[in-house]
Design brief:
mainly alpha, 12 helices, 72% helix, 0% strand
């Protein structure tokens, strides 16, 4: 499966969708308070705290990005080892994407994808290295909303052609999930109203994301995903 600009955009969008999911977006203020030891009310009333909060948010993002890159590399190596069975692997990938999409819509519960398996990190004095450690713990766990999306990206990484392509897939996903987190950290004193408005639609966004995953899975099963990618973005990365 070629790594196309469409694939990168979809993966980056999947990261944003994970950030906007019902079990991540509403908890962002709590994460920021936990990382920095600053209450949301204090942060929103003092604009000078934005840089400090942004640094902790960045360390948190770097932590889970590292985990995602390692997972992407592992998935690509597994896919390379199964290269003689690439066609069968692509079909399995399509089926898994459909399953992950169904789970993300919430119409049919999938218990092993809907649990929360995050690694606990004890509270302590705010420090940049501790924020990175919390990010590592976040990346190493599967939450009820991000699990199906992350699983889908890993499946695509396993079906990609090279180790580098798998790493790029997961980097794009980490950027989609991490950039909004850092921006809210930097602009926490200005984003309160916007976050309240977006929170109303997180469930709908997850449902739409689930439908998109189902459609992508069907395209992979029928062998038409690469055709669509080549039509929309004729200049793809090297195979």
């Amino acid at each position: 499966m070629a790594l196309t600009y469409l694939g990168l955009l979809a993966t980056f969008g999947a990261g944003i969708l994970s950030f906007l999911s019902p079990c991540v977006f509403p908890l962002v203020p709590g994460y920021l308070s936990y990382l920095t030891g600053i209450s949301l009310q204090e942060a929103q009333s003092t604009s000078t705290l934005g840089r400090r909060i942004g640094v902790h948010a960045l360390c948190f993002v770097l932590g889970f990005a590292l985990i995602f890159v390692v997972l992407g590399a592992a998935a690509s190596l597994l896919g390379s080892a199964l290269h003689p069975y690439q066609q069968a692997l692509a079909r399995i990938a399509g089926l898994l994407l459909v399953l992950f999409g169904v789970a993300l819509t919430g119409l049919v519960p999938v218990p092993w994808l809907s649990g929360d398996h995050r690694l606990p990190v004890k509270s302590g004095a705010p420090a940049w290295w501790r924020s990175g450690l919390v990010g590592l713990a976040f990346g190493a766990g599967w939450s009820a909303c991000t699990g199906p999306i992350l699983g889908s990206i890993l499946v695509l990484a396993a079906a990609s052609a090279t180790l580098m392509q798998g790493v790029i897939f997961l980097l794009a996903y980490a950027l989609g999930l991490g950039v909004p987190f850092v921006l809210i950290g930097l602009l926490v004193d200005r984003t309160g109203t916007l976050m309240r408005r977006i929170r109303r639609y997180t469930g709908l966004l997850s449902f739409i994301g689930g439908v998109v995953l189902i459609l992508m899975g069907m395209l992979i099963l029928t062998g038409r995903l690469d055709q669509l990618a080549n039509l929309l973005f004729p200049f793809s990365f090297s195979h």
